[in-house]
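Predicting holo structure, pyridoxal-5'-phosphate bound.
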Amino acid sequence: MAQIYLDHAATTPLFPEVATAMAPFFFDAFGNPSSIYQLGTSARTAMDQARQVLASSISCHPQEIFFTSGGTESDNWALIGLAEAYQEKGRHIITSVIEHPAILETCHYLESRGFSVTYLPVSKDGLVLPSDLENAIRPDTILVSVMAANNEIGTLQPLNELGQICKRHNILFHTDAVQAYLHIPLSMASLPVDAMSVSAHKVNGPRGIGFLYIRKGVHILPLLHGGSQERGRRAGTENVAAIVGFAKAVEIHLKHGASAMEALRETRDYFIARILEEIPVARLNGSLTHRLPGNTNFSFSPLNGEALLILLDGKQICVSTGSACSSGSLDPSHVLLALGLSREEALSSLRFTLGEENTREELEQVIHHLSLEVNRLLRMKGLL
Ligand code: PLP
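Done. Tokens:
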């Protein structure tokens, strides 16, 4: 039985061309980009070219891209580095209740350091209301961080409107775009965003590499202290192979273009319609319209999502019960609770995140097995 992978929000398979592009930097081209002999300068050239590709993917200047170890570091750095840099102006930060733990836990850390944080609620669809942001702003607010797209329910936030409010109040706006990058257009030439976190392994690149976009003129303190890499803002010898691989993955996505995302959106809508048709207990979580092209998330109340996940795993089908970071724990998802779901409904949920390689035949197999298991569990409960 072939494996069916429907957990692209957790991580994505590496494009084979990415591994090929990375390989020389583990062997002949292993130089340190800070070294001034040819082995080093050729590594630097490869890194500069990669930075150029990444910058053009979000229409910014290459000098506004700072390589990090991934989304978690970018989020930590953005919040801590900006909060510390602007603390003379105020110590209040605004975020949303449905952020990834990389943001929420960093906010808790900043609270322990004397900052105050307002956590904005979301609508039952998972949207932050611009009026709630407007009302939460105080004279001492220095920073707002709202994710571009949610990792569990795929909700796309009104980034432009939220950013415009921040701009009007002269407050910095950071967005965690780890899930949104290359799935929706994100142009720094038009979006009022001051800092943005991105990770390579969500877009068929390697794990452990990402970047933080920081708009020119925005002051940020380093998180990592040491050498003068990344223009003195992020110390540590750069992971050249991963950087080159990241850029290769992005190049491939850009070549696939908007039509690939449109096709993914159509496949997603087909899957949603078929699940709701075949499995009467299924309820879609999140917004139908403001949603990432590959994201679906359903509750199967009164069944247990974890039990369904294990049964599907037995059929070589990989799905998730929420964010990968919280699987293994029996706590209901904070995102689903924030939508107003009960504890039982939240624990009954499964996330299926599709990728470009998933076919409708695969999805039909998933629906077939899921429907059989749901009916079996409902019968065991005496509900069918
Ligand atoms: N932010 C969001 C929205 C995510 O989905 C993730 C990963 O799942 C992260 C941050 C963390 O990114 P990384 O795994 O690159 O550290």
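The radius of gyration is 21 Å.
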